Amino acid sequence: MTTNNWLTFSIKRLAFIFAWGIFSASSFAAQTLEIAGTFIPPGTSKNLTLEVAAGESDPATFIPVTVINGKNDGTVLATVAGVHGYEYISILATEKWAETLSPESISGALIIVRLAHIPAFEERSVYVNPHDRKNLNRSFPGSISGTQTERIAHAISTHIVANADFLIDLHSGDGAEWLAPFVGAYGGPLASDYEQAMDVATHFGFPNIVTYEMKTQQQVDTERSLNRQGVAAGIPTILVEIGENASKDETLVNRLVTGLNNTLVRLSMLPKETSPHSNETQLNHFVGTTSVPVDVSGIWYPRHVTGREIVEGEILGEIKDYFGKIVRTVRAPASGYALYGLAGLPVKQGESVMTIALKDTP
Ligand SMILES: [Zn+2]
């Protein structure tokens, strides 16, 4: 947290402990959380509905949140699933994971956003909100007077990220995307506690680790993602990606649950002896990614749709026009690891067909 955020939070916390001392015989020293006016004392859990009011041109919505506040003090970890409503592994894993946890079993507190983007989920909308056609993951910190996507972003920034000490943003490949599981850790001069973020990332149990270096304020601010909202709020942040194209595969769900439990152990929220086995042992480290934008719309025929090493210049696929003629042969602009991309068929001018993780600083 930034000093200012920490101060505000501490004042809020102290005020409540003071009130608690007057009105209760109990004298808990652990923190009480306040989320949008709801108080969650230590040793309790609560399901709460974060209301997002109607805007000028689009309806009200809500965000389902579960808060589990442990009896003992510790890290406040926020996890956010379903920023993209068509990415199901994170939503399923969150539901399964939350059932196994209780205020008795953890130290610190968990703020679990079970499904951040309900309108996109209900409309099965890939990438964007069905009302304003904005991508929630490009809309932070949001605005209370903005369109629906911006109001959802504002609620998450204000009530979730601002109350957390550590943020995990959970994603998959979206509709018509393939993806190799990876964890991104935010580093560079503008990120906070990269060491802790990297420690969690490397113990998560996924094979691919990408460091995103935040060097300029423009990087943090331009089309700000939820991850970069974590960076802006001054908390260590990781991005977790597993699954593709609306997959509900139970093996992938379980890998994500294991990773989340590994995180609780690394953050001393669960005792070490409860540590699950890692999913993977071999780690591939990358620094940053590059995209492969194309300059024509049409029908995309990728050569491969799985994570793999690629070399600069190799053919990634072809784009055909709507009469079956090849109009572009797309080649890798750099060597690296093919992390995720479009599985086809559609591709639009300006879209990236693949994201390549880079082995060295670009
Ligand atoms: Zn996503």
Tally of extended strands?
20
Poorly predicted segments: 1-29
**Which whole number gives the mean pLDDT?**
91
Rg computed from alpha carbons, rounded to a whole number of angstroms = 21 Å
Account of the 3D structure:
Helix content is 24%, strand content 30%. With 362 residues, it is of the alpha+beta class. The model is unreliable at 1-29 (pLDDT under 50). The protein contains eight helices and 20 strands. The strands form four sheets. Strands 3-4-6-5-7-11-9-10-12 form a nine-stranded mixed β-sheet, with helices on both faces. It folds into two domains: 33-282, Aminopeptidase (3-Layer(aba) Sandwich), CATH 3.40.630; 289-359, OB fold (Dihydrolipoamide Acetyltransferase, E2P), CATH 2.40.50. Helix 2 packs across helix 8 (250-266). The structure holds zinc ion. Zinc ion binds next to loops.
Spell out the blueprint of helices and strands.
Blueprint (H helix, E strand, L loop, with lengths): L2 H21 L9 E3 L2 E3 L3 E9 L8 E9 L2 E9 L7 H12 L7 E7 L4 H5 L25 H12 L6 E6 L5 E3 L2 E6 L6 H9 L5 E6 L3 H5 L4 H7 L4 E5 L8 H17 L17 E4 L1 E5 L4 E5 L5 E3 L4 E6 L5 E6 L4 E7 L3 E2 L4 E6 L5
Parallel strand pairs: 5-6, 5-7, 7-11, 9-10, 10-12
Antiparallel strand pairs: 1-2, 3-4, 4-6, 8-18, 9-11, 13-20, 14-16, 14-19, 15-18, 16-17, 18-20
Helix pairs in contact: 2-8
The structure holds zinc ion.
